[in-house]
Write a structure and sequence with these properties.
Structural class of chain B: mainly alpha
Largest sheet of chain A: 2 strands, antiparallel
Largest interface: A-B, 46 and 38 residues
Radius of gyration of chain A: 21 Å
Order of helices and strands of chain B: HHHHHEEEHHHEHHHHEEHHHH
Largest sheet of chain B: 2 strands, antiparallel
Strand order of the largest sheet of chain A: 1-2
Oligomer: heterodimer
Strand content of chain B: under 5%
Low-confidence stretches of chain B: none
Shape of chain A: globular
Number of helices of chain B: 16
Structural class of chain A: mainly alpha
């Protein structure tokens, strides 16, 4: 999202003047469309969309799980992603040396993911048991508000730790970028389109997260409970499923997935570990989950694809034709608003979940 | 202050400029509570209306709004900005009130974020829209009836009086702003209070308690929700306009940001959702904590560093000394403690300060308290 910075003055700056004179506007609209449909452009947008899909689905998966079962919109999700980014970064910086080879770095990276997932899963479960469980009988808005308080505390705690370690909290911590293996750091030429190795890596990780979550939902006992619980919580309880235990597990796994996303983002040159990363990813996760529809993981996957494609297209448009840096982000929220107007329960949502 | 505990009071008592902020943010929080607390529809994009009011004033004062030149009286700008916010609220509300619960919160957040991103990149505002815009010059904006009686608002520019009416009372620019902003906030509060206690307000509460029943009884709840949203947007924009006039500058981060809505939310939860006046007290608490834990001159951290002897400050294990703990845990750490207090309030005091007080007293504080106090003073015998 923040990746598009340098290329503000593309060839089609005049496209911005479309509001004044209709004739050139029409001409440049045709020009933009012509430009868009060239194979090179489509490939460039496609590759970008693929990487963003990987990122967004990873960022949103945990939120989707928690929301689907419990109806709790976890505002702390982004903050947990931020914590994951710093945990992963700290682990990589501490273990990777100049001699570590490419494979070694990748293995350490996956170890960092596993560790961050485990640590934050425990934190998430603790949050659920100590803070959210006591207020299940209240209106769902209170649970949302509570997680919002968690944001304030977690962000401030992160700032305290960072200050103690002498790291600037509001700007991106760049040290972890040095731990990327050369394979991922470099640029590649794919049929004349330049892309980074890390972007394709993100797409692969995203697919792995989708597969893993799918497996969790369809093959494990807790997955069964989740699907039963989001279908009809009361009935599930009556059939002997310990819904409370499922809630704790799901909240933990959802939080762990948030941290996993953070570890991935720590390597990404467009994001990187910083405290503001929390809000940035939270908003993305909201958009993806709401567009997909609450209680539907399939919806979340599809929505991540839609949002990724929209973001990639708008980033391209900004870089080449429309000199408005906020374009990708703004259109992303417009898509959210439009989807909610046309289909209030989201693309795949069940109408009853989430206070409808 | 020449009193024996002057330094201590300096830490605890808020400054005038803090109290001005309490007034305008308090008004914003009250407007948030007006729609969220009374109708139960959480307006998560409320900062948008605050931002509209603030940006409208700054843009008009820098001669960037057509028809309203730089010399337009502030009161006109205030009302025009608020009217614009009402129009936006009606447009946003028309599509948003088809949704309920979490979805309503999310669609209003979506609209606000569209506006936020737009304003952050809108080159028309200034050459660097990310840093916002400011009103140049030294002409203060003033509140009142133009040509009859006005009071200037401004952090650094505006009226100041020495020995007012020969009474020996000095009023600085901040003091004058305090009263000027205070008048508007008070009037706005009375207006909202009036609506809340009118039949219209009763229907708002009915919507919160059971919307379907309200509809079944025959009320067109959609129109009531739209009305409440519009009124709420109006006063949010008034608060934003006061903020801009006082600060004379505005940037996206302190007007359109999600965390501005969060401030209103924090104030409402601590003060009491659905109590109208509560959020003002909630925000006083917020500013109080922030003031005590501030990094500035009057903050607790600086007080401790200056008062505690060096032996105490230097004590500790190796790297972890008392002074370092003070610096890290107290200096500018208000958010941490506010977050903890917020969580505790959500868990244990769901009705907030004012809501709980009213519950205990069995009615509005002003009505019940004198009676209670009298009974207590007589020894509880009646």
């Amino acid at each position: 999202m923040t990746g598009a910075v340098a290329l503000a003055s593309g060839p089609g700056i005049e496209a911005a003047a479309f509001a004044l004179d209709p004739a050139p506007a029409l001409a440049s609209a045709v020009e933009v469309l012509w430009d868009l449909l060239r194979p090179g452009t489509l490939l460039r947008i496609g590759l970008d969309a693929l990487s963003k899909f990987g990122l967004y689905v990873t960022v949103a998966a945990g939120l989707s799980l928690i929301f689907g079962l419990m109806g709790v919109l976890n505002f702390a999700h982004g903050s947990l992603t931020m914590v994951g980014a710093y945990l992963g970064g700290a682990f990589m910086v501490a273990t990777v040396t100049a001699e570590t080879g490419g494979i070694g770095r990748l293995l350490l990276f996956f170890l960092a993911m596993a560790l961050a997932f485990a640590a934050v899963t425990a934190v998430g479960a603790a949050i659920e048991v100590s803070l959210i469980r006591p207020i299940y009988d209240r209106p769902p808005l209170f649970q949302i508000l509570l997680t919002f308080g968690v944001v304030l505390v977690v962000d401030e705690l992160a700032r305290i730790v960072l200050e103690f370690r002498g790291i600037q909290p509001s700007t991106v911590w760049e040290a972890p970028w040095g731990t990327r293996p050369a394979v991922l750091g470099g640029f590649y030429d794919v049929f004349g389109v330049s892309t980074r190795g890390i972007y394709m890596f993100e797409a692969l990780v995203g697919l792995a997260v989708v597969a893993g979550t799918w497996w969790f939902l369809t093959e494990t006992r807790y997955g069964l409970h989740i699907r039963a619980g989001s279908e009809d919580a009361e009935m599930a309880q009556a059939l002997g499923i310990d819904v409370h235990r499922s809630f704790t597990v799901v909240f933990g796994v959802g939080a762990g997935l948030a941290a996993l996303a953070g570890v991935l983002l720590m390597w990404d040159p467009r994001f990187g570990a910083s405290v503001p990363l929390g809000v940035e990813t939270l908003l993305i996760a909201f958009v993806v989950v709401i567009i997909g529809g609450l209680g539907s993981f399939r919806g979340t996957v599809v929505a991540a694809g839609i949002v990724g494609l929209t973001d990639a297209t708008m980033t391209w448009l900004f870089q080449t034709h429309v000199p408005f840096p906020g374009l990708p982000e703004m259109v992303m929220f417009l898509v959210l608003v439009l989807v909610l107007i046309v289909r209030p329960q989201g693309l795949f949502g069940v109408a009853e979940v989430g206070g409808h | 202050m020449g009193t024996p505990v002057g330094a201590e009071l300096d830490v605890v008592l808020p400054e005038t400029r803090t109290m001005v902020a309490v007034l305008y943010v308090g008004l914003f929080a009250m407007s948030f509570d007006f729609v969220s607390g009374y109708t139960g529809y959480l307006s998560f994009g409320h900062a948008m209306f605050y931002g509209i009011g603030a940006y409208f004033v700054v843009l008009a004062a820098t001669d960037k709004v057509p028809l309203l030149g730089a010399g337009t009286p502030f009161v006109v700008l205030l009302l025009a900005g608020a009217a614009l916010a009402v129009v936006v609220a009606l447009l946003v509300g028309a599509v948003s009130f088809r949704l309920t619960g979490v979805y309503f919160a999310m669609i209003t957040l979506g609209f606000a974020e569209v506006a936020h991103v737009f304003v952050r990149n809108w080159g028309y505002v200034s050459s660097n829209p990310r840093d916002g815009a400011s009103i140049g010059g030294s002409e203060a904006l003033s509140i009142g009836i133009p040509g009859v009686a006005t009071l200037d608002v401004g952090q650094l520019v505006g009226d100041s009086y020495e020995s007012l009416l020969g009474l020996g009372i000095d009023l600085s620019t901040a003091d004058v702003s305090y009263y000027a902003v205070g008048v508007v906030v008070l009037l706005s509060y009375f207006a909202m209070q009036r609506i809340v206690h009118s039949p219209f307000g009763r229907v708002m509460v009915a919507v919160r308690e059971n919307e379907e029943r309200a509809r079944a009884v025959g009320y067109d709840t959609f129109r009531y929700k739209m009305g409440a949203f519009a009124v709420s947007a109006f006063f949010a924009a008034v608060a934003g306009a006061l903020f801009a006039a006082y600060r004379r500058s505005v940037h996206p981060g302190n007007s359109f940001d999600l965390f501005v809505t969060a401030d209103a939310l924090l104030a409402s939860i601590i003060g009491g959702l659905g109590t109208l006046a509560g959020p003002l007290y909630g925000h006083i608490f917020h500013e109080f904590v922030e003031g005590v834990l501030s990094t500035e001159e009057h903050g607790l951290a600086r007080y401790l560093r200056e008062t505690l002897p060096n032996t105490v400050l230097g004590a500790g294990y190796g790297d972890v000394t008392v002074v370092r703990i003070v610096n890290v845990l107290i200096d500018g750490r208000a958010e941490l403690y506010l977050g903890v207090v917020f969580i505790l309030f959500v868990l244990y005091v769901p009705h907030g300060i004012l809501g709980t007080l009213r519950e205990r007293l069995g009615g509005p504080v002003a009505e019940r308290l004198p009676d209670r106090a009298r009974r207590y003073l007589r020894g509880g015998g009646d």
